[in-house]
Design brief:
Elements lengths: L1 E5 L3 H6 L6 E5 L4 E2 L3 H11 L5 E8 L3 E3 L12 E2 L4 E5 H10 L1 H4 L4 H14 L6 E11 L1 H5 L6 E2 H13 L24 H13 L1
């Protein structure tokens, strides 16, 4: 059972009562070059662990927008679903039930942002997948009107704050020391490299 929802039609989304198997969210201006319902359904059938599908899109067949790979830390700043994406109904229903008390105080727009972000935050590299076949196209005017769709900024972070606070695996600057990477350019000199690594560890 597939539901097709226009990205900003939050009232319609909640009127569906989250009883569908798959929800496909698209821009009002875009069009697909395939049977979108069948295409997305096949991806979910072949990826039984997947709960979210980020789908590549383009503007007038030449400006391609690739969705980010699964990177849970990025959700702290923004959620980039773009103008076409899909979520499994079971994940949306689980998020709605898990955070029922909190979302009861939100309007439909904020509630939509929260529970869809919850699917991503509570997911993992197997449950969030990406399809790079650019089969969804938007006219150039769509780009000028804010393509692709991104949720971000202080308002967004305030909405998803309970998700961040209740998720142990987030590396929050106010709770942990930030991690860093050290890159050491080196070639054919293992002794010097070894001494360098020892020095870094000692410091």
């Amino acid at each position: 059972h597939i539901h097709n929802i226009i990205n900003d039609d939050y009232d319609l989304f909640f009127s569906e009562c989250l009883d569908g198997d798959v929800y496909i969210f698209t821009s009002e201006e875009g069009e697909a070059s395939v049977d979108l319902n069948l295409y997305v359904a096949n991806i979910f059938v072949n990826s039984p662990k997947a709960d979210a599908l980020m789908i590549t899109e383009d503007v007038d067949y030449y400006r391609t927008y690739y969705k980010p790979e699964f990177a849970p830390e990025s959700i702290l700043e923004y959620f980039y679903p773009g103008n076409i994406w899909a979520l499994r109904g079971r994940a949306l229903k689980k998020a709605s039930e898990t955070y029922k008390e909190y979302i009861s105080s939100l309007d439909n727009k904020d509630k939509f942002i929260f529970i869809t972000a919850a699917v991503i935050i509570d997911g993992n590299s197997e449950s969030i997948i990406r399809d790079d076949m650019s089969l969804y196209h938007l006219p150039l005017k769509a780009a000028k009107n804010g393509c692709p769709k991104v949720f971000g900024g202080k308002e967004y972070k305030n909405i998803i704050r309970p998700l961040i606070d209740n998720t142990d695996r987030w590396i929050m600057e106010d709770k942990f020391n930030p991690l860093i990477s050290v890159v050491i350019p080196s070639k054919d000199n293992p002794d010097m490299l070894n001494e360098c690594i020892k020095s870094i560890k000692n410091d």
